[in-house]
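User: Teach me something about this protein's shape.
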Amino acid sequence: MDPSIVQQTFKAAPLTTEFFLQGSVMENSLETLVNRLKGLCDNADYQQESFQDHEMVFHIKNTSVPTPLVFRVRHSLVQTECWSLRYLGHAEVGDKNRPTLVRSYIDCPTSENVAQFIGELGFRMDHEFVVKGFYFHKGRMKITVSKFYKMNQPGNTTNDTIETVCPSYLVELSVVTSSGQEAVGDDMKNFAEQLKPLVTLEKTDHRKIQLAQT
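Assistant: First, the predicted structure itself:
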């Protein structure tokens, strides 16, 4: 199937924008960061929301499209009935005055046969991994602390067949909203300042990372 047809289908879905900042923290600073987040975020008296997900990254190539179209299928390993299909646009660094990265964002709940469905459309799985972590919320801001795991056996997500990709945790501060809500970036910047020096949340230029890996 022509990937432009799939793109047109997704354009019909409600298009939202994700503003985000990223950083990392080592294991020995994790507990201190969690305590700081509990003090800053909503519902501090409650345990943070944890998750364990299996994510499969699919792409489709076409000569008429300069870059592959990438979809992400995510399956909860805790609530096994929960599946979703996600599209993340390319992160835009923007001008120096913009405090966050910005990208297009679509996340749709699906049935359990979503991987088979997009495979029949011509998508091929590029890689898969397990991600474990927890969420905090502050108003409309979401703070995710997560660790990524390599799967040594395709499709097998059991703990004895996965291993950590790196010793640090990814910390991401994000807000998903309609396009044009640039003011949210100032709120995120102010919140990020309160997490220093435990973690520095910043605009990570993913293009430079990709160039360094090539």
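Now, about its shape. Residues 1-5, 208-214 have pLDDT under 50 and may be disordered. The two ends are 30 Å apart (CA to CA). If you'd like, I can walk through any region in more detail.
User: That's plenty for now, thanks!
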